[in-house]
């Protein structure tokens, strides 16, 4: 296929590049044709056309009345692999990574912005330590130390026989049992490192286009205003250096956590030479931990330029040093010590309490920094008055806490059989007190959600009743139908629930902070003695806490079974993969700037793909291009527009529909999609139109007013359904479309045609000798292959 400029009399080709939204799509559904061909790309993400449009640039006379439709399909970036369903277990890491990007704008206050980033990265580090410590508690303390060291517990489990203290085997020595059990948390850390490294190679390693890698059209249009949004910086979508740096630090932190758990076990038993060796190992662990903190606090990337460097020595030697210390500590712990028996629990009951206090302090500090950043320029539509980031970070900590406490309590309940850990009838002392309190928090959190959920339900019902008059006014001249009016009004009321999300997040975060403080206080009043978790409470409170603890442990066990079930189903069912992938479409748009073990950022592949395609097509043809984005596709489209050079932007129009750019991203990520950023996007692109419906629960207006001779971006809200009752043209009732099928509305084609009319006419591509390039077409921009 030739992408050469057609003869001038035909005016050149126009292209509509379609970008789908959450949940994925097929090229056949996007192009409304079962016969499609792949123009460029691979099985993960590619650009498709109808088979009949494959050579559109050679026959522009066929497309005088409409643009050539082209579909960019990126659904396999998030939902193509069944293993992605297991990423649900990494939910706390993903949530804390979102908190990094939720900071308020920081014009003129770069130091506060850097402090905000440092606090979020430290919070992310505590989550890695918390997860590893929880697995150490399960593997080392509950299993290898308590259960294997107690004949009443080990005798009923054949798989623990070779570790049992009363068997007298080689592995029955307490230190050797612990060294062997340490393999489980160490392997978990290794698995996280492997997954992060593999996805980093597939996603973050995608290099964005630079000024010398794509041809530019011979355009004399004055350049567009300067791009002020951070998403337009050359290095924004190229975070491989930072991810590699953080991956090394978090891997080392996880391994050091395992080593610290091993080193603390024999500390009281060591004498003489073994005591000196133990002190040297603990000193080395502290020094390595300080190095990890230094690495995490460092910036590690520059967005203002494309940074291809990799700190090879750091990312290699830091995890290697931590692994070496872990091996040496395991050897030291496994050394036989006369008279050493496993009684009680391992040292370290205060570790979980210290982690909880550190996380609470970091969240409070993060809130203070967010308020200082928000004070200068407060936007009333910003979620939680600028505290969306701290609230989301608190959610990540709460998720990590309840998962850790619930898993530890569930394993303890499973190991001790019908008894309750910590009672006289149980062979186990039980998990640390704080984990028991955290497990008891889970049912309380669910109960707290019932009240705001009920209030929102009542408010939605009342709103649906009030909206009946508005619906009838929108369909003047129609015979009123109470059932039809109620259906449309209820759809509009339910769509408005999205705007109540900040209230729910705020309530949950505040409750999590208070309940976490209560758990720490409860553990402190009981003396941090396992088995006496609720000893300091009144009988009624102790009974309530014991009941909620049991419920919480069963709930977390059920949750993990549900995760595993979803994961197994996703291996076999493409629809299940697509459903689970919707979570990552929303949650993994942003780069991994806070936690390297979070699910990968698909935009670091999709945004360069779109940028490359637009630059190459306009550079080879000089034609007009409409970038058409639906839902999450509109967010990718906006990010790609910001990355374009001025000459390319002059030939591109933006059409968004069902777009969450302002309703979700503008409110929750004000530094990147706030009012100033969206106005900058309107000035940056040649022309922009946005379509929305009152029944859409995701999309909405972008609220960019008319300025400098440009019309307002938002079109009037589309009627949904288009037809109220039965007509001769529509003899059957039309459905309420909500977030889907915007192309079915006649206004879609009208807006697209208006955008094309506002774009400048096609330009002839110039040869090196200055003549027209119609005879010597450059074939390199095609890249077409059969699908």
From TrEMBL:
Query: Region annotation Disordered: residue ranges?
Result: 206-228, 755-787
Keywords on this record? Answer: Membrane, Transmembrane, Transmembrane helix
Give the organism, scientific name.
Streptomyces termitum
The question of whether Membrane is a record keyword is answered with yes
Q: Does the keyword Membrane apply?
A: yes
Determine the domain of life of the protein's source: Bacteria
Q: What is this protein called?
A: Integral membrane protein
Question: Which SUPFAM superfamilies does its entry note?
Answer: alpha/beta-Hydrolases (SSF53474)
Segments crossing the lipid bilayer: 85-103, 115-135, 178-195, 248-267, 279-298, 310-331, 351-373, 385-408, 437-458, 501-521, 541-564
């Amino acid at each position: 296929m030739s992408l050469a400029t057609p003869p001038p009399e035909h005016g050149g080709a126009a292209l509509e590049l379609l970008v789908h939204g959450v949940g994925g799509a097929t090229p056949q559904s996007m192009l409304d044709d079962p016969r499609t061909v792949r123009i460029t790309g691979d099985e993960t993400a590619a650009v498709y056309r109808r088979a009949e449009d494959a050579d559109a640039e050679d026959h522009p006379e066929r497309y005088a009345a409409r643009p050539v439709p082209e579909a960019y399909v990126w659904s396999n970036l998030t939902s193509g692999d069944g293993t992605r369903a297991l990423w649900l277990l990494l939910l706390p890491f993903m949530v804390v990574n979102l908190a990094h990007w939720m900071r308020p704008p920081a014009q003129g206050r770069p130091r506060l912005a850097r402090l905000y980033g440092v606090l979020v990265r430290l919070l992310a580090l505590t989550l890695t330590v918390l997860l590893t410590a929880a697995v150490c508690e399960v593997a080392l303390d509950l299993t290898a130390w308590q259960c294997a060291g107690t004949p009443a517990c080990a005798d009923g489990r054949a798989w623990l026989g070779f570790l049992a203290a009363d068997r007298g085997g080689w592995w029955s020595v307490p230190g050797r049992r612990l060294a062997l059990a340490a393999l489980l948390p160490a392997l978990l850390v290794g698995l996280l490192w492997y997954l992060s490294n593999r996805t980093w190679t597939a996603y973050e390693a995608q290099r964005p286009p630079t000024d010398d890698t794509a041809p530019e059209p011979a355009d004399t249009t004055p350049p567009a205003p300067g791009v002020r949004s951070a998403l337009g910086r050359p290095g924004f979508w190229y975070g491989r250096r930072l991810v590699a740096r953080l991956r090394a630090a978090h891997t080392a932190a996880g391994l050091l956590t395992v080593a610290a758990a091993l080193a603390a076990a024999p500390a009281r038993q060591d004498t003489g030479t073994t005591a000196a060796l133990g002190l040297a190992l603990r000193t080395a662990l502290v020094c390595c931990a300080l190095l990890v903190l230094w690495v995490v606090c460092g910036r590690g990337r520059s967005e203002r330029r494309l940074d291809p460097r990799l700190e090879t020595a750091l990312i290699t030697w830091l995890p290697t040093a931590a692994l070496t210390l872990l091996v040496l500590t395991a050897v030291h712990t496994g050394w036989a010590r006369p008279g050493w028996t496993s009684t009680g629990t391992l040292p370290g009951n205060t570790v979980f309490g210290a982690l909880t206090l550190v996380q609470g302090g970091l969240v409070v500090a993060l809130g203070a920094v967010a308020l200082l950043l928000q004070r200068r320029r407060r936007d009333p539509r910003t979620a939680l008055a600028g505290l969306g980031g701290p609230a989301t970070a608190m959610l990540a900590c709460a998720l990590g806490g309840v998962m850790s406490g619930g898993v530890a309590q569930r394993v303890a309940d499973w190991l001790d059989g019908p008894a309750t850990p910590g009672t006289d009838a149980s062979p186990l002392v039980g998990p640390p007190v704080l984990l028991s309190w955290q497990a008891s928090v889970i049912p309380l959190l669910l109960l707290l959600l019932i009240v705001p959920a009920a209030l929102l339900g009542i408010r939605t019902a009342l709103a649906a009743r009030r909206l009946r008059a508005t619906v009838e006014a929108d369909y003047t001249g129609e015979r009123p139908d109470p059932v039809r009016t109620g259906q449309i009004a209820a759809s509009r009321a339910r769509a408005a629930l999205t705007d109540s999300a900040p209230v729910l997040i705020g309530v949950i975060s505040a409750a999590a902070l208070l309940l976490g403080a209560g758990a720490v206080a409860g553990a402190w009043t009981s003396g941090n003695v396992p088995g006496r978790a609720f000893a300091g409470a009144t009988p009624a409170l102790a009974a309530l806490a014991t009941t909620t603890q049991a419920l919480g442990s069963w709930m977390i066990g059920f949750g993990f079974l549900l995760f595993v079930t979803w994961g197994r189903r996703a291996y076999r069912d493409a629809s299940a993969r697509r459903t689970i992938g919707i979570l990552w479409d929303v949650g993994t748009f942003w780069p991994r700037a806070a936690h390297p073990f979070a699910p990968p950022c698909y935009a670091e592949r999709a945004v360069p793909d779109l940028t490359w395609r637009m630059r190459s097509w306009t550079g080879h043809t000089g034609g007009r291009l409409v970038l058409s984005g639906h839902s999450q596709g509109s967010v990718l489209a906006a990010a790609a527009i910001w990355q374009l050079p001025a000459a390319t932007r002059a030939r591109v129009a933006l059409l968004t529909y069902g777009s969450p750019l302002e309703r979700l991203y503008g409110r929750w990520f004000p530094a990147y999609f706030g009012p100033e950023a969206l106005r900058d996007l309107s000035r940056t692109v040649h022309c922009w139109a946005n379509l929305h419906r009152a029944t859409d629960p995701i999309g909405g207006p972008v609220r960019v007013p008319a300025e400098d001779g440009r019309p307002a971006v938002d079109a009037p809200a589309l009627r949904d359904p288009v037809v109220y009752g039965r007509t001769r043209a529509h003899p059957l009732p039309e459905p309420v479309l909500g977030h889907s099928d915007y192309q079915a509305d006649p206004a879609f084609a009208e807006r697209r045609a208006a955008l094309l009319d506002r774009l400048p006419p096609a330009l002839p591509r110039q040869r090196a000798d200055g003549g027209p390039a119609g005879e010597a077409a450059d074939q390199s921009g095609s890249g077409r292959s059969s699908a």
